[in-house]
Structure formats: structure tokens, C-alpha cells
Amino acid sequence: MEIKTKFSIGDKVFLLTNCRVIETEITGVSHYNIKEVINPKHKDPEKARRIYTNYQIGTGAMTEEKYLFATKEELIRAITEE
Predict the structure, then answer these.
(1) Which residues pair with 58 in a beta bridge?
(2) Considering the entire predicted model, what is its pTM?
(3) Under 8 Å CB-to-CB from 72, ≥6 apart: which residues?
(4) Is 34 exposed, middle or buried (0-12, 13-18, 19+ CB in 10 A)?
(5) Which one, out of 10, 61, 62, 82, has a CA that is 20 to 30 A from the CA of 54?
(6) Do residues 15 and 57 lie in contact, with contact meaning Cβ atoms separated by under 8 Å?
């Protein structure tokens, strides 16, 4: 199985924590926390699979990819679209 990640170790990323935007660095990628989830709504089993990757950030915390953004602009767009 090949796993492609959005970020690599050393990448600078932005996230929202305690109502503040912070910049941090990816210090690790967790492969042992990868989960495969089957979404029964999809008819095609290949499209139904989703892989979740956790990243270790500069604070030592593990964070899901969906909470990390390459730029502040991407983060602002994501929170204003909800």
C-alpha cells in the first residue's frame, strides 16, 4: 500500500488553537495511527476508502491533517466556509 501525505517533516503549517492562529512545524508523521474507514454510501469500494494521517507538530501534539493548512489564507477560507 502506498500512502501519500499532504505535508512532510519540516514543513511549516498553520492551525487554529484556542481561537488563535499559530504557525508550527511538522516534526513527525504517524503511520501507526492510520485508519481505513469504509464509507457504505459509495458504490465503488475503492472510492469508499479514506485514510487518516496524524502529524506530530512542534508542540509534540498529534494533529489530524484536516486541521493543518499550508497558509493562513487556506485556514481562513476553511473556517469561513463552514
Answers:
(1) none
(2) 0.68
(3) 14, 21
(4) middle
(5) 82
(6) yes
H and E: helices and strands count for the chain: 2, 4
8: nearest Cα among 23, 38, 28: 28
Express each pLDDT in 8-62 by its tens digit.
889 999 999 888 999 999 898 875 444 555 555 656 655 545 555 677 787 788 8
- What would the grid cell of residue 16 be? 487554529
Closest CA to 51 of 68, 40, 42, 38: 38
Is the CB of residue 24 less than 8 Å from the CB of residue 9? no
Is the dihedral angle over the CA atoms 13, 17, 57, 35 positive or is it negative? negative
